[in-house]
Amino acid sequence: MARKDPSVSEGNPQLDAPSPSQTQSPIETTSVPAPLLAEAQEHHQRLKEGSSDISRPLPNEPAPFPPLTKAVTVEAPYSIFTTRVKWGLVLLVSTAGLFSPLSANIFLPVIPSIATDLNVSVEQVNLSVTWYMILQGVSPSIFGSIADVIGRRPVYLVTFLIYIGASIGLANTHVYWLLVVLRCVQASGSASVIAIGSGSIGDLSSPSERGGFMGAFSLGAMLGPCIGPVVGGLLAGAFGWQSLFWFLAASGGVVFVIMAAVLPETLRSIVGNGSIPAHGVNRSLLSLLRDRRHRNDPVDPNVIVPAMPPKKGWKDIRLLAPLKMFREKDVLSTLTFNSAVYTLFYTVTTSTSTSFKSTYHLSESEIGLCFLANGGGCLVASIFNGPRMNADYRKVAEQVEAARAAQKEETAANDDGKKRDLNDLSSFPIEHARLRSLPVFFGLLIASTIIYGWVLDKGVHLSVPLIMQFIVGLSVTSIFNSISTLLVDMYPGQSASATAANNLYRCLCGAAGTAVIDPIINALGPGWAFTMLSLLCCCFVPLIVLEWRCGMRFRAERAARLKRRAERKAAKKLEKGGVEQ
């Protein structure tokens, strides 16, 4: 009988036993010769000591296979632009956004001079301010919708060309009606840049970094009310009121040249995350040079390029989207209150030049410097409102969680043990968080406005109305920031349309205020005029109280309605697809 090989026999104890590499010590065997046993012990000791010199194989050990390289799939960045480039672009669009408030406020100190030069009344010149504000509210809805289709860069360039042309025309006009028309054209060009700038920052930045960029972008808009009247007063005092518009045309031309040279297209439906080259007017000189520099770079097959949104056409423009929001109860009540506050604020600002000139007999340069008080209050509020609103949010969140724990209605964790998502606002009273400090600032606004009117009426020392204007600017900006943030919370996916609706409503109301403030002051005096307007503003307080008490219910009703609408659309689409098959 042939002898059976023990290495292949069933039930061989040596095969059934663990291999040396599977035991606690790789040297526990009696079948290894002494020299090989010494080598194995040395190798095992090097492994225990963490030595990197373990490349020498054991005797009779096969050579190791070369290491396998694992293909790593890399997610493409949200934007290919570096952080440094992003900050440069934010600085550029923030500078462009400065021109709308700058053009509005640089005009205020020279209203009396323009009225005298054109042989019209101050009330008639104020009508140009009224029409400026109307176009300032309407034009972003038009140009912003167009920019969402054809790209940010072309609309930037077109609107700035409109602005520069209108400024040159204003510098050469000596007719009242032409002044009004060109101011409307100027407003159309400058106001749209702010809406487009917000869209550009959304294209460039991910949600985690967007807050910082938006804060820097808004700083340009806040500098306009602060420096505009000062620049206007100084230029008009030295060179006449026409020099204001030459200054705006020249500075706008400089910004236009810079944008034409370096501002890239950012609309994601055209360039994705910036890696897809733009064409034609959407392509800047900077983008052209960058594409040429990297045209021979190899393409990494492991990088996943995010899918581009479908390209939009002219039929996708939704000019009426902001108007449809006024059908919502919470939006209408909030924006009506905010517009009343804005109107009161603008009556104070618009009447400053005529009131200070008649009461304190100041020159144009001195009147321009007086606007620093109001602008300084706005600037201080814009710096501190972010931390203040975050603190209000944390305070309300703590109160809500404490109340839930005390009532044992809900706990800080869901039934599955997961921590509650603090970003889910469906069951959180965000209205309480955003409006928590509003009564304080509204009280400051009403008190400072009434005092401001009476100190003007009695001719009290100039420092007192300036202090009141600082408080007015501080309180109004705090209210505006709270309302604007609440609107974004209400419409996180449609914040641009919500902002356009807010801008449209408050600018139209502010325009009405500027048209009537001078006749009211002439009839009643500044004391009773601002007292009456302040009390009228108080009449809208019940609307914000309604939002405080019922805002969460309004949001829930809207969410349920939108969900039902989406389900109906999905059902119709599914039914249509079944019929076609």
Automatic annotation (TrEMBL):
Major localisation: membrane
Keyword Transmembrane: yes
Pfam families attached to this UniProt entry: MFS_1
Biased composition regions of type Polar residues, renumbered to the chain: 19-32
Taxonomy, superkingdom: Eukaryota
Domain Major facilitator superfamily (MFS) profile as annotated: residue spans: 89-549
Gene3D superfamilies referenced in this protein's UniProt entry, alphabetically: MFS general substrate transporter like domains
Protein name (database record): Major facilitator superfamily domain-containing protein
